Amino acid sequence: MASILILKLIPMLSESTFYSWLIKQQNRKDPIGDLARDIKRDERFPATQTDIQLFHSHLIHHSACPEAHCALDEAFREFSLPKSTRDSLSLKLRFQVFKRESYRCQICGASANSGVCLEIDHKLPISKGGSNSIENLWVLCFEYNRGKGAETI
Hints:
- This protein is mainly alpha-helical.
- Helix content is 44%, strand content 7%.
- The protein starts with a helix and ends in a 5-residue tail after the last helix.
- The model is unreliable at 1-12 (pLDDT under 50).
């Protein structure tokens, strides 16, 4: 009986808001999604912590690859950004862009048939004054889109 009472007196540590946000990213098809899936399986990940350095230390201790550290930094930056009210692209507009570009990456020519993930990208990023107009949109494969980032080509 005494042990039950003691357990009730120990405050429950709750997950940090970053950890909760990261776990919700599991369905993404990018390095952040990969990291989220790995962390979800890791019962010893410091889920209650908020210090990015502690997360990196945990990854180092478990011999995580350099890409995991990059994904962690990218996730933390994305999590820390002020939430915007950016308009999303309609499915109709996305389809029009895919159709116009013949369902191929406009840099390397890869198609979904070859097993790559294709994405709609802004030629001039929204962060640099670009718009959601069809003229500013094109199709890139996942790798080129992530490599391009917020750059203008």
